[in-house]
């Protein structure tokens, strides 16, 4: 591997992870994308497809949810594919390298999220000065750190590990080689088990076995079973009441509650919302990305630097929602900030008017109580002060809003305005805090837990057949849904305002989630019955006849061993066993049974 190829692959790995931070969760970092891309760079696309698909199936259930740090797929996919090509490894053998590389690569993400706390703290100092450019600089620096924490380890691994892996591959043969292949082949059972734990409920679990049996007995294929699953899910949803997510309202009611923000600003918020995970840190998570999304709108609402600083500071507090569904919260917060700015503007205007009247009176040497009104009812004429009293008096300074005012001198209008401002700030923070959790729950289960695994499983099955379109079969549909969901949720947030969540039909959401789970469970069952390739070579002689144990098992239930391994991993996950421990047990058991000749990969 040349230096140029190593640099290019390291850049690809870093950019794929960077895209999660600044370009929306486009899933460019998935193994089904990076494996083939690495193969394309190194001139061996078929190996890239096979290795990328195998690694995708292992980590098909892994997702970056909340503050968790899953295995680093960019590092695992790039290193595993590159070493497989250069050392002539099988996909199963490559997994023994790719999986540890992905697990170790997670430390890079840990470092990036820890370092980003420094940039969020620095952003607060810029917010105190009302400097939006300073906050933007911290966003980009944080994203650069996230890029480097993946690109640098990938480059070091590619340059230093290539020869070592080649020599190790040449030294491994016989039982050790078979053990490594079985260990690599058995690991996807963990990914399937993680998916089952996410999707399954007791009433829906039979759909997993339906998908498995269809694949095992009929050779229907993952794509065919998934298509059938979608149709069954559609029938299920419509028989239970349909898929309309909104109920009631409409017409004048919606128009009355719509948010009057210029379309140009809405579009700007939409595009900037892709960067909501920028400079992701452990303490504030998406806070700085949320703030960066609103910066142009806040700058327009608050030309006064002090008011803008207050707005920036209140959004640099903890926030963590789903990367695809920030739209409703952004829409509501944008509207609330506009209302808050009007409170401040009205108060400022009132203060300016009062100060002007006070100054005018002082300039004439008289106050309102000193004016004389003629008996004729004509205009009041002030007394003529002496010459030495004509110098204008300095206006009394207006007390700061946060300064205590004696009860006798308190202005009821000022107190009311200040109370209104405080209530407005509480409302803004309350909307963010109360909505981010429910929306994240919907997004994580619907997209991370169902849509992405289902599409990546279909794509992986195509890649294992050598189909070069497999990465596009994953990327294009998942991101069409992504962009559509992002725009529609934001648009409905602006259109319905605070009535959006009143109009949401919770039962329809539940029906859709059940339908998605049905399709997902059938797809996972088909993956277990098709691509978990483990069998046993054990046989014995009865008289003159050689009887193979695998044939006996197939007569009872085809693909019995893959099903048993998957259900054992699923049982361990349901018992709250750490997934890394399950991974280690599968790898060690697979290696041992493979080396002893009990199991064989590729059945």
TrEMBL record:
Localization annotation: Cell membrane
Name where it mostly resides. Answer: membrane
A GO molecular function annotation here is: transferase activity
Keyword field: Cell membrane, Membrane, Phosphotransferase system, Sugar transport, Transferase, Transmembrane, Transmembrane helix, Transport
Entry GO terms, CC: plasma membrane
Q: Name one GO biological process term.
A: phosphoenolpyruvate-dependent sugar phosphotransferase system
> Which Pfam families does the protein's record reference?
EII-Sor (PF03609), EIID-AGA (PF03613)
Can you tell which superkingdom this protein's organism belongs to?
Bacteria
TM annotation in the entry: 97-123, 135-156, 176-196, 208-238, 468-494, 515-534, 556-573, 580-601
Acidic residues compositional bias: what residue ranges?
Answer: 408-417
Segments carrying the region annotation (Disordered) are 349-429
User: Membrane topology for this entry?
Assistant: Multi-pass membrane protein
Per UniProt, the ranges with Low complexity bias are: 349-367
Protein's name according to its UniProt entry: Mannose/fructose/N-acetylgalactosamine-specific phosphotransferase system component IIC
| Natural source organism | Murinocardiopsis flavida
Organism phylogeny: Bacteria, Bacillati, Actinomycetota, Actinomycetes, Streptosporangiales
């Amino acid at each position: 591997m040349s230096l140029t190829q190593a640099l290019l692959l390291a850049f690809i790995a870093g950019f794929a992870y960077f895209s999660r931070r600044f370009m929306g969760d486009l899933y460019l970092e998935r193994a089904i994308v990076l494996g083939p891309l690495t193969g394309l760079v190194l001139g061996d696309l078929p190996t890239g497809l096979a290795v990328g698909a195998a690694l995708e199936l292992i980590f098909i259930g892994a997702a970056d949810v909340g503050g968790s740090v899953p295995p680093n797929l960019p590092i695992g996919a790039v290193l595993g594919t590159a070493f497989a090509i250069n050392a002539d490894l099988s996909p199963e053998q490559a997994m023994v390298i790719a999986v540890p590389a992905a697990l170790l690569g997670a430390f890079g993400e840990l470092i990036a999220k820890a370092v980003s706390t420094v940039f969020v703290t620095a952003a607060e100092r810029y917010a105190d000065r009302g400097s939006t450019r300073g906050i933007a600089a911290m966003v980009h620096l944080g994203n650069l750190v996230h890029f480097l924490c993946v690109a640098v380890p990938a480059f070091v691994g590619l340059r230093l590990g290539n020869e070592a892996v080649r020599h190790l591959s040449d030294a491994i043969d016989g039982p050790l080689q078979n053990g490594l292949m079985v260990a690599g082949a058995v690991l996807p059972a963990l990914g399937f088990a993680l998916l089952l734990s996410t999707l399954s409920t007791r009433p829906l679990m039979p759909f997993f076995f339906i998908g498995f049996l269809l694949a095992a007995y009929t050779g229907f294929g993952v794509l065919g079973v998934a298509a059938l699953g979608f149709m069954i899910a559609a029938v299920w949803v419509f028989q239970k009441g349909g898929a309309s997510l909104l109920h009631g309202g409409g017409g004048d009611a919606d128009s009355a509650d719509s948010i009057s923000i210029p379309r140009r600003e809405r579009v700007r918020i939409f595009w900037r919302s892709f960067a909501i995970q920028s400079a992701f840190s452990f303490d504030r998570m998406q806070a700085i990305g949320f703030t960066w999304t609103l910066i142009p709108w806040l700058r327009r609402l608050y030309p006064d630097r002090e008011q803008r600083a207050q707005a920036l500071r209140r959004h640099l507090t903890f926030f963590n929602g789903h990367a695809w569904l920030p739209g409703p919260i952004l829409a509501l917060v944008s509207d609330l900030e506009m209302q808050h700015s009007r409170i401040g503007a009205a108060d400022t205007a009132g203060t300016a008017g009062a100060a002007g009247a006070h100054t005018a009176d002082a300039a004439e040497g008289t106050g309102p109580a000193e004016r004389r009104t003629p008996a004729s009812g004509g205009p009041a004429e002030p007394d003529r002060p002496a010459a030495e009293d004509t110098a204008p008096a300095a206006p009394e300074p207006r007390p700061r809003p946060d300064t205590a005012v004696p009860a006798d001198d308190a202005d009821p209008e000022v107190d009311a305005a200040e109370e209104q401002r405080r209530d407005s700030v509480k409302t803004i923070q309350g909307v963010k805090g109360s909505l981010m959790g429910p929306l994240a729950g919907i997004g994580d289960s619907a997209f991370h837990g169902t849509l992405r695994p289902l599409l990546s499983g279909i794509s992986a099955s195509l890649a294992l057949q050598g189909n070069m379109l497999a990465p596009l079969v994953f990327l294009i549909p998942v991101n069409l849904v992504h962009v559509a969901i992002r725009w529609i949720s934001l648009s409905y947030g602006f259109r319905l305002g605070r009535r959006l969540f009143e109009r949401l039909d919770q039962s329809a959401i539940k029906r859709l989630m059940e339908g998605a789970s049905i399709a997902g469970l059938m797809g996972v069952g088909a993956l277990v019955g098709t691509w978990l390739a483990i069998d046993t070579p054990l046989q014995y002689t009865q008289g003159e006849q050689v009887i193979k144990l695998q044939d006996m098992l197939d007569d009872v239930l085809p693909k019995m061993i893959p099903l048993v391994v998957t259900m054992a991993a699923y049982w361990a996950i349901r018992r709250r066993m750490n997934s890394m421990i399950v991974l280690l047990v599968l790898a060690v058991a697979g290696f041992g049974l493979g080396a002893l000749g009990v199991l064989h990969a590729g059945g």
